[in-house]
User: What shape does this take?
Amino acid sequence: MSLQTDTIAAISTPTGPGAIGILRLSGPEAVPIAEKCFKSLGGKGLREHRPRELVYGDLLDSGGQPIDRVLCAYSLGPSSYTGEDTAEFQCHGSPMVLSLGLEALFAAGARQAGAGEFTRRAFLHGRLDLAQAEAVGDLLEAQSREGARHAAGQLAGALSRKIGGIYSALVDVMAHFHAVLDYPDEDIDPFRLEELDRTLSDQEGELNALLSTCGRGKLLREGVPCAIVGRPNAGKSSLLNAMLGWDRAIVTDIPGTTRDTVEERCELGGVPLRLIDTAGLRDTDDPVEKLGVERSRKAMEEAGLILVLIDASQPAEEEDFALLQEAMALAPTILVWSKGDLPPAPIPVVNMELPATVTVSAKAEDLDELCQAISCAFPQDLRRDYGQILTNARQEEAASRARGAVRQARGALASGVTPDALLTDVEEALQALGELTGQSVREDVTDRIFSKFCVGK
Ligand code: GDP
Assistant: This one.
């Protein structure tokens, strides 16, 4: 992969007015270009200040006219985000200022950065490996606190270190077999063979553990699909609204990709949820109601968690429990007695094993028990080993290939094949692990990864 010789520039903050807007430069000419577009108030040139020092001054257009009063800093490669020389202007967050500023940087010799090009350069210069670069994307798109924490852990190198451990153990195995190849007449000591098999088996175990995290990665990325079902008037819409209102700061609307509904995202009990929209259905006349029932069924079939609502203020009916039974057969289910602020009706005796049961009041915004129950339903995993999980299909595929090759190597060792055949397997495992961190990855794959980033990142 060739290193870049040109200097890129972009607006790195979101579009629209804001307190601060950032213009970013990276490349061999970053500092001279920044200098051409900047006049410090103290009168010293930018490079007369130390790298990373924030310098107060004017951002200038190509005619030398001030565009904004800004803070400017530069860093010198390799100690910068991209590993190249970089400069950054912290401007007022005005779209017009930023666009004029960017024009000035172009006039001074920079070109527009492509999507993810800053992070791509960081990867090319070895400042981040591929797993870390993917974590940057995950961090930007995190939909839940836990998702953000895992991405931060991965960015800090937790996954890379884990993979690095496996990689280095396999390199030891390979080194040993290379040595054996050099002296083909000498038999491998049986004790050594056992030791090698143990190393391979340990690495297989590590890869198994890593691959078992894929489900968690998917949950963090996509949220647990959660269906809220119950009879008309059970309080489904009210609960949905209360759940969304619970932590408004991280609620987002995600238009459904495969159907016309809007799926609501929220986080409850530390678990990212994707609420499947059955609650929004209004029961009117028959045909619509029928459709509602069908959609509830479909939502239950797709769900990773079902909340079955029964109105605690009304006598429960047989069909409530029939629905509960149906839900329990499909996914982890929580029985939610709704309207807990009203005087309760007597609870009928039912002849079935009940799932986790909680009382909520959407009206009083009392969802404490529900939060706890959801947290208990997904206890394990989301809140530990931050950053040490596989979060996308590319990582899963590479780890799975590595595991396959390690297994094959163990099989080969057991059946006494020649060291050169075994070496091929170990090399294949190393290649796959290298793809995970980007040590050995094809350029089209990295292109695809970085093209998903936004411009300016
Ligand atoms: P859905 O048909 O299951 O979606 O039920 P809704 O959420 O539309 O609620 C039906 C009725 O119950 C409405 O009149 C709500 O105001 C009322 N309701 C819902 N939740 C509560 C609650 O927690 N407490 C009280 N007192 N009333 C509630």
